[in-house]
Predict the 3D structure of the following.
Amino acid sequence: LLMITPLLTPRNGVPEVVSNESQFEKLIAQLRNGNGPLAIDAERSSGYRYSQRAYLIQIYRENGGLHLIDPIPLKDSKLWQRFNDEFSPSEWVIHASTQDLPCLIEVGLKPKLLFDTELGARIAGCERVGLGPLAESLLELQLAKEHSAVDWSIRPLRPEWITYAALDVDILLDIRNAVEKLLIEQNKLKWAEQDFASILKNYESYEFSDMPKPDRWRRTSGMHKVRDRLTMTIVRDLWLSRDELAREIDLAAGRVLGDDAIVELATKRPDNLEAVAKVIGRRTRLEAPPFNRWLKVLNLALKTPIEEQPELRVASQSLPPIKIWKDRNPLGYARLTHARAALIELSAQIQIPTENLVTPEFVRKICWQEPPAINGEYENFVNEQLNKMGARPWQIELVTPAISTSLSQTEPLVAPEPVEAEGEPETEQ
């Protein structure tokens, strides 16, 4: 039984928040006197602000101190550049790095060497990989997590929030060392290092942008109620207008106008300000909602010629849902059921979640295709496909035999359908 000790304050106290150039220069000097990796974390205001920028950056280095930076007033890009030139060759320890790298890159920070404690813990077979659970299972320390979802854009930052933020990096190097120890014991360190390097490679040419992806409006919640192209046009135009306003005032889009209000406006089509206000009701956080803006967008959308209205359905570039494989591609379905079963077995043997063993989409793409006519070519085919899709060498070596043997199967395994997990695994906070 673990004896968990609550960790209420950082072990060397809570530092003052760095908010001007001279303090930043002192911080660089202090970190320069330290040694070893840098633990780095960032706090954003997701759900409150439109931007995904960092509103607080926390850094800790052994013998270099614990530092908290408010990046908002620090406009001098040369200082950020100097920090990056000085410390990017050192290892940066980040928990769930794909969440924080975009906002760190935005201010000019880009590591050359990474250790991701969350991903490392997954590969090491840890059951729960959030920072709090890892602190408990690996260090027998309990972190308070009640401030994880606060609005970090508020100034001044509250003392209890600052303490919470400081604790995250105060123990991060200890977690890193404990995770590395597990990886070494299991002969998995090289696997984890390949994954860390792959993350950095993906961000090599990354440029921060807060512009939405084209057709993002199609993911508006409640789209199943939209049955015709004109209604879809109204949804699109309201969504784009809301996005423009949200970016302008830096407020989360859902706080400017809820998705459900957009869909209701599009389907009910109120024709005056009072009716628009009634539909929107409390589904906005704005003190003075621009009802006239939404009415104007709605009226203009209604005049859109049919040839300019978006199609109800767009051709998908991705594979069809697995539930229709049985009819559309029965042999592909048979191959997939066997591949999944083999990967689940391998996952249990080496204690790595299947989604970290190989990206599920890669397996689906391989099984959907017609395999080579010659049975002996299966391994080369799988190897080549996984390479092309960006699987890591350790993954290719481990999963190629399991996937290859499934390609000759013509009858599916009878098993309950797994929940489809598209893309990367969710990160536990």
